[in-house]
Design brief:
Length: 145
């Protein structure tokens, strides 16, 4: 299974330790195409290796998104890029799982929470302590379908 993980980069890197935990758990179920999002050395300035520029990053990521079987997005830290990826994934009819932590004090965008349809687009509130169990539930539900 190919998994596309979405997490904030230029929108802020406060949740990078959590991204690492999510990616590690997702790797038990398949190949995480965007593992680099969880790398600690990646700052909000983006990829240092992006000498080819933003267009190359966009095109590479869209290729990965096209080949992905499922999208897992941590959406607590607002990010234009993550929102864009989710919109494109929905247009591609990908199975999408958004994870949000209400304990952050933030309110999730209505455009994300309102997209929840229980079929292709899922939004799940969670706490950091339960993230691995939540991912197990999501992936075991995928295996049943």
């Amino acid at each position: 299974m190919h998994i596309y993980f979405c997490g904030s980069i230029r929108g802020g890197r406060d949740d990078v330790a959590l991204y690492q935990k999510i990616v590690k758990k997702c790797q038990q179920y398949g190949t995480v195409l965007t593992e680099h999002v969880s790398h600690g050395h990646l700052t909000e300035k983006g990829e240092d290796a992006s000498l080819a520029g933003d267009k190359a990053i966009h095109d590479r990521d869209m290729t990965w998104l096209t080949t992905a079987d499922v999208v897992v997005a941590e959406v607590t830290q607002p990010s234009l890029g993550v929102g864009y990826e989710l919109g494109r994934a929905l247009d591609m009819r990908k199975k999408i799982f958004c994870l949000f932590r209400p304990s952050s004090g933030r309110v999730l965008s209505a455009m994300i929470r309102g997209a929840h349809d229980g079929s292709l687009f899922h939004v799940r509130d969670y706490t950091e302590d339960e993230v691995e169990r939540v991912l197990e539930e999501l992936f075991s539900g995928l295996a049943k379908n």
